[in-house]
Amino acid sequence: MPSSRDRLARFLTDSLPQWDHPCPSRSMFYREEFLRCQECLDREREYYSDRAVTDVEVALAKVMAQLDRLAAHDDADQIISRLLQQFDVVTGLSGWIDPRQIN
Question: 55-77 pLDDT, tens per residue?
């Protein structure tokens, strides 16, 4: 007969919610960040060639399509952070302040 500790451990692991993706909130957070990159790119469009904008848009689309898989990695925060930094070079997201956020 299993001990009460074994039954409790099995109960706790069996009752955990089953997600299609390992961490949906992490994916949602990063998805919002990449959408903000897209918004910044749209605002900065006039400063770049059409080809450069298209290349960044294609890269953003690829990352967004693979975001759930990327977020499932143990080192997802480091991987996605590096990607966001690379997009920031073009979009300037880190330097943009939403005027609605200013008090």
Answer: 999 999 999 999 989 888 889 99
